[in-house]
Every structure is written in structure tokens, then in C-alpha cells.
Amino acid sequence: MPVPDSLHRGSLRRRFRLLPVVPSILLLVLFMLAPVAWSFYASFTNAALSGKAALNPQWIGLDNYARMLTDSVFPLSAWLTVVFVAVSAILGQNVLGLVIALLMTKSGGATASLVGTAVIASWVLPEIVAAFAAYAYFSQDGTLNQLLGMLGVYGANWLYAFPMAAVILANVWRGTAFSMLVYRAALAQVPRDISEAALMDGARGWQRLAFITLPIIRGSIATNLMLVTLQTLAVFTLIWVMTAGGPSNASTTLPVLAYQEAFKLGDIGYGTAIASVLILIGMVFGTVYVRLLRRANS
Amino acid sequence: MTSLRREPRFTERRPTAVAGRRPRVRLAANAALAVIGMCFVLPLAWLLLASVDPHAGYQTRWPQSPSFANFAAVLTPELLFVPLLNSLLLSAGTAVVNLAASVLAAYPLSRYQSRFNKPFLYAILFGTSLPVTAIMVPVYGLFVQLQLLDSMPATIFFMATTTLPMAIWMTKNFMDSVPLELEEAAWMDGASGLATLRRIVVPLMRQGLGVVFIFVFIQAWGNFFVPFILLLSTAKQPAAVSVFSFFGQHGAIAYGELAAFSILYSVPVLVLYTVVARGSGSAFALSGAMKG
């Protein structure tokens, strides 16, 4: 509700109204825009943590980006990132979250709320604690192998033998709560009489789901896919604690690679180049996300 | 906007004609949910059992001689109290900066119509989608240049900026739901915009501001990567970082103590989450999910 303009006349006064936004803009420019701009700039230099290049970084053009293509680790790391996002976020969290939300509409109150609490608990815990729990679970003498042992199967040393599978499952465990909450809220808004009318017409369960429920919540599905993709793209702590990107880069996703290049090897230039690629991917998804929301709001 | 609008609280559906007529569907759904729930609880079970088992390993087992020895062992100033105090400073500072900046910014966005509003709101929404882990490399470089490394206030301002876009969105939405009539009366009496904000709007949206505060606090409390990169001296590091160093040094031996440490560090956010989730249902839960 806008204030009647007779109360505040004059364009100067109107401009002053926006003054309270200035502190927020300052923070965002200083701590978000500036680092992003600096990232793109530094990615064209040989900036380093120590040595001659630390004091006086040289402009080296596209060398860092050319190095990505010849580097043996970067293509692998980019591929692992795609696998990590596709399997743990788009397939894992998204589908499992939808399944849990759907099951909850069919189930009784007590089971639904107990399971909801369990799913949310792993998500509210601090990142590092969740990562320790996942580390313990997948380690050689951990809970998973104990369970397999009860079934008579001798389990592998998951963190070394199948590091990607371990971090993907851990990320599904950690992040599904978000999708579950999105879909619970979305399903609660599906008008009852629509699905009941379908029932009268004799629509079977899965047909109702495919032709009625899912099309109604497609907006939520799109938003959720965007958000879980962006969240999973940025996962660092979980992987760092569980495998540290290893063994021999077998679970080095791009955030881990950027960290290793910049802080372990001291190559800030190459590290920021990798970070810039990630930021660009985030920008593409961000643009699509804002478009989606604008269309939904207008 | 699924995640930003206040969603109506999820209400449990009463058993309908459909479910009532088909108890088998309900039973199957319950069974499937129970299995999924078990999978989610298992990794946490280790944490709880190991914390009270002085001889804990990575196996999940009932402690033979359960005791609070692990808790007693980590309850020391350098292991627990100083890091927790640092976490508190960092998280409370981040939340205060967020609250102050976002209340100020939300007021003109909510109360005056301007061509500036929509582009600004969409721009900061865009800001929420930048991967924070990627920004850390340039932020480190920037902090080195500006000699801000190992500075608590600088770290607080940076962490506040990463959650600021969400905080502004939430605060604006809460402010939109405060009726305008009372303010109009105050304006008629000649009060300025900011005075009205302080005396009328902020008190009316106390609960919403509480939600924003806790939302930011929880994120800052759980943040590992940012303080891990920006705070170098152990005396300033929060629990998230110190528990990681503890794990690196003793993790392979003192499993039980690691579990006890983790639990003590997690309790505050679990309590805060429960408080807010009770009050505002899924609205908070959804927006709280915008973790970097």
C-alpha cells in the first residue's frame, strides 16, 4: 500500500526516502559485488599466496582458462560436479523429498511427524557435525558395514573404494529436508476436490499423480530444482570432512578444487579462475530462477 | 514464490474418505515412511550412543559402561567454552548487523512505491544464488589486500552480507503484513518515517524479526567454511572450526569425545529451530533452507 503522495511532496524528499537502503547496498557492494569483480580480474593474473607473484601479480590473459582445458584434474572435477549435482540433488533430494511428501499425505499423523522430525534433524544440525556423522557411518568399521554384516555381506571401505557414492548419499541424507518441506507446502495447496473429482472418474493413483497433482505443483518443482542445484553446487564441508576430495581426486568437485588450488597450492590466480567458472554457473541459474519467480508473480 | 511468501501452515489432513476406505494404502505408506525414517536416524544414532560411551569407536553399539566421561573431558575452557563464546559473538554479531540493515532497507521497500523497488528486490534475490564457497577464494584475496584477515568484525560483516539478501526479503514480507493505519495516524501528527519505523512498525513485527534473527543466527552458527578461511588464530575461531581441528588431531582416537563435543555444539541451534518451527510452521523452515 503506497502512502498518498500528498503527504510527501517534492522529488528531493522522495529521494531521501531511499536513504535507509544505503547501508544494505554498501554491504552488498563491498562484500559481494567487489569479491565477484575481483575474482574475474584475478583469474586473468598469476596472483599467488607467496613468492614473487604475491607482491606483484602479472596479467597473463586467458592462460588460467587455457590451463583448465589441458589440466588433467579440471575436466574430471567438472564431471564429478555434474554427477554430484545430478545424482544427489536433482535425483536424490528432489525425488526423495517429493516421495516423502506424497507418502505423508497418505499416512497417519504420528508417523508423518516423527519421520519429518528425523529428516529435518539431519538438516538443522551444523554442517560439520552432519559431516562427522556421515564420515562415521561410511567408515570401514562404521554403521553401514555393521548393517551389511548382519545380512552376511562384507562391506567395502566406502570412503576409499566408492568416495563419490558416499558423498552423494551423505548429501541426500543431509539435504532432502528442504525438498520435503517445499513439496509438503505445495501439496497442501492442491485443491482437494480436483483430485476427488478425478477419483470419481476412476483415475488410478499414479495417473492422478502424473496428470493432476504434478502439473498443479510444477511451479514448486521448478523452484525446488533451481534451489537444490544451487545449494549442492556450493557443497564443500561435507566432502572436505568425508574424503578431502580424495583418494587421488576421485571426489574433487569444483569447490574443493578451487580451495586446493588457491589455499593448498597457493595459486590464487588459477583458484579464482575456477571460482569464476562456479560463479558464472551460479549466475546462469540465478537468472533463470529470477525469471521463473517474476513470471509466477506477474 | 514458494520459498519466500509465508506459506500457510501445513496441517495434517484428516483421514479422508479415500484413505478411510483403503486402510491398506495407509498401512503401506506408513511402512514406507518408517523405513525412510530409519535410514535418516541411523547416522545420528551413532552420534548419540558414542557420546555416552567412553570406549566408543565408529561402530553403533549400546555402550557397555555408559557415562558422561566424554562430556566431562571436553568441558574445558580451551576446548569448548572459548570456541562456543566465539561462535556466539560471531553469530549474534552477524544477526544484529543483518537485522539492523534489513529493517532499514525493508521500510522504504515496503512502504513507498518506487521504480527502484522491483529491480532492487530481484537483484538481491539474484545475489542469493551466488555460491558462497566460490566467493571465498576472491574474498580471501580481498581480505589479504585490505589487511582484514583474522579480524572478527570484518568476518561478521562478510557473513552478514551473505545472509542479507534473504533477511531483506523475509523482513519486507513481514513488514508488508503490518497494517498501515497506525503509521498514517503518526504521520498526520508529524512523525518522521524513521521515528514511525522505530516506535510503531518494529514493535508490531517483533515476532517476525525474531524469526529473521534466529534464521541468520542458525546459519552463522553452523557456518564452517567462512571462519575456516578468514579467522586464523585459534583464540578467535568458533566451535565449527575448533571441532574440526580437534577431529584432525584426535578424531582417530577420541571418537566419544568428538561425538560429545558435536552434540554440545549442536544443541543451541536445535533448540532455536524448535522454538521458531513451533511458532511459524513451515514458513521459517523453508526460508531457513537457503543455506549457502
Strand content of chain B: under 5%
Q: What pattern of helices and strands is seen along the backbone of chain B?
A: HHHHHHHHHHHHHH
Shape of chain B: globular
Please compute the radius of gyration of chain B using only Cα atoms.
23 Å
CATH class annotation of chain A: Mainly Alpha
Number of helices of chain B: 14
Mean pLDDT of chain A: 85
- Quickly give the CATH architecture of chain A: Orthogonal Bundle
Report on the biggest sheet of chain B: none
Instruction: Report the largest inter-chain contact.
Output: A-B, 118 and 113 residues
The CATH architecture of the largest domain in chain B is: Orthogonal Bundle
Distance between the termini of chain B: 19 Å
Outline the fold blueprint:
The complex is a heterodimer of chains A (298) and B (292).
Chain A: H1 11-17, H2 22-42, H3 52-55, H4 63-70, H5 73-106, H6 109-124, H7 127-138, H8 143-150, H9 158-161, H10 163-188, H11 192-200, H12 205-216, H13 218-233, H14 237-242, H15 254-264, H16 268-297
Chain B: H1 17-21, H2 23-51, H3 69-74, H4 77-111, H5 117-127, H6 132-145, H7 152-176, H8 181-188, H9 193-204, H10 206-222, H11 225-230, H12 239-250, H13 255-280, H14 282-288
